Amino acid sequence: MKTTKISSKLLNLIKQSSSFLIVGHINPEGDSIGSSLALALGLKKLGKKDICVLSKDPVPENLKFLPWARTIKRRRPAREFDVVVLVDCNSMERTGFETFRARKTAIIDHHVLPAETAKSPFYTSLSAGIIDPGAAAAGLLVFKVLKALKVELDKTIATNLYAAILIDTGGFRYSNSSPESLKTACHLVEAGASPWNISKEIFENIPFRGLKLLGLTLATLERKDGIAWITTTEDMFRETGTTSEDCEEFVDFPRKVKGAEVAIFFRQAGENVYKLSLRSKGKVNVRKIAKSFGGGGHDAAAGCKVTGSLKEVQNKVLKVARKALKETK
Amino acid sequence: MKTTKISSKLLNLIKQSSSFLIVGHINPEGDSIGSSLALALGLKKLGKKDICVLSKDPVPENLKFLPWARTIKRRRPAREFDVVVLVDCNSMERTGFETFRARKTAIIDHHVLPAETAKSPFYTSLSAGIIDPGAAAAGLLVFKVLKALKVELDKTIATNLYAAILIDTGGFRYSNSSPESLKTACHLVEAGASPWNISKEIFENIPFRGLKLLGLTLATLERKDGIAWITTTEDMFRETGTTSEDCEEFVDFPRKVKGAEVAIFFRQAGENVYKLSLRSKGKVNVRKIAKSFGGGGHDAAAGCKVTGSLKEVQNKVLKVARKALKETK
């Protein structure tokens, strides 16, 4: 089983500090929110008094049930902190803030560190951190940090960490569902996390209007040459009274198409503007496809924004996707 | 952690026998198929030479990837076996066969034993068995049996058992996702099961036509008083070139509706005949609702067949469901 070595520098920094600003990334999902809250709750258990969890964007509707989610602040407190800890992200840009008032900066993340970031003054001035792209979720790293700090897990911490791992492993489905992620999930359930309650809140609490939107969107399903795609238009949002928040997971559906290696979700985001989510079943690197349109992400899950009419956008993107698919053969 | 005591009678029976007929249930799913195959492969590793896995109904399309699934027979061999082992079911009726040529009968199952079955000659003449309704999947019981028999797991066994547990815990989402199921999954991944490959085959391999059918079906989504329901008609099957096999998981969608405590899927199965799948989020016992129409199942997942026009059927069933829901308040 792969294990991550937790840096003693990070542990010492935590032990020696007393005020913490914990920040996740923009457009936060379960790993960002759950890991941040779990870290905050763990530090509280260690007797740290001044802890603030910060998120530029609001907590998504289906994550508001997470213990202590209501305490998350959207504005930077005016006071200075001993340490700011970036969780589930590794650059200032991803936090959505320009600066933080903190004497030291630390990172707990599992994303690949871009070469530019590694050379940036922000990164070279880091006090401590753990960046492990091999970890399925930042939640697994926070779990290890808390364990190394001898924090006894309770239900609030376990629930937040379970949600973090659940989201980032696609419900223990993706290839990152390591023995470690399952073993950690097992510990978390023993510590009080309830798989059904958490899954119910995250996956089984879709507004009626969202499923209506899904029905309309699935009617657009097309496939060709190992690529499957769907489209949500602004008309559909209007007809169902929905917003982009209602179609966060829609790209999962073209991905489910048998024989589809690449799945694309085209979401209209203005006149002649489309936001794309791309998924790969393993053969194609969709981060490269997204990058060629100025986007980014992971090898198997990426996104970008493309302008033009729907037809133009689809033609452009499908062409690049077809080429990428051909190169794998 | 809850553990099941494996009966020494069962272990001795296995040790002392050399030919085995292993039978799952009609309309088999991942737990029935995966557990049966894993048991067969495990017994083979113990040096047992004559093993036959039998299934009345064919292996579903999305389970054909399971190691050794192709060896499953649909017809009873003429020869006599030392033991017939019923897996994931506990009555002859559920196997779809009337008799087996076997000197002894054993059961490995996790379904509640109906009072009638417990009194039946079939049951009282059982040679050995393990029936544990507390187990999330029959696969967990087979895992324990193989462990007790000191069978070393390999990738083929681990893959079959992982699929079994994955299916019956709803991908580790349902309330039966015990620490035990997660810990066992962890062992299985360490023994060679690949979460992504298995999940991909089971959940991400939906025929294009099936997703088209889902789109049409979601357009029928309705909800009232904590009940959400959808309908697939024979017209929709014709329009998309699909069959009932394409809508096996459709009931998951009304279940996802926020605020829905009961989800119902009405599937037309002839003129004025509807097959229903019912799901509960925990408050309502849908087995009781199904039972009042001559059906059955589990407390949270049940089914029945109701005759009448769609409107008549829906009115009848929704009335009973509303009453059941009211009684929980």
Would you kindly provide a written description of the structure presented here, covering whatever features stand out?
The structure is a homodimer of 329-residue chains. Chain A has helices at residues 8-16, 30-45, 92-95, 115-119, 121-124, 138-148, 155-168, 179-190, 195-203, 208-218, 234-240, 252-256, 286-291, 310-327, and strands at 19-23, 50-54, 81-87, 102-109, 128-131, 222-224, 227-232, 262-268, 273-280, 296-297, 301-307. The first copy, chain A, is α/β, with parallel strands linked by helices. Chain A folds into 2 domains: 8-203, inorganic pyrophosphatase (n-terminal core) (Alpha-Beta Complex), CATH 3.90.1640; 208-327, Diaminopimelate Epimerase, Chain A, domain 1 (Roll), CATH 3.10.310.30. In chain A, the strands form 2 sheets. In chain A, strands 6-7-8-9-11-10 form a 6-stranded mixed beta sheet, sandwiched between helices. In chain A, strands 2-1-3-4-5 form a 5-stranded parallel beta sheet. The longest helix of chain A has 18 residues, at 310-327. Chains A and B meet through α8, α9, α10 and α12 of A and α8, α9, α10 and α12 of B.
The portion of residues assigned to helices of chain A is 25-40%
Most extensive interface between two protein chains, with residue counts: A-B, 49 and 48 residues
The run of helices and strands of chain A is: HEHEEHEHHEHHHHHEEHHEEHEEH
The total domain count of chain A is 2
State the secondary-structure class of chain A. Answer: alpha/beta
* Total E-strand runs of chain A: 11
Distance between the termini of chain A: 32 Å
Main sheet record of chain A: 6 strands, mixed
Approximate shape of chain A = globular
The CATH topology annotation of the largest domain in chain A reads as inorganic pyrophosphatase (n-terminal core)
What multimeric state do the chains show?
Answer: homodimer
**Contiguous helical run count of chain A:** 14
The CATH homologous superfamily name of the largest domain in chain A equals inorganic pyrophosphatase (n-terminal core)
Gyration radius of chain A, in Å: 20 Å
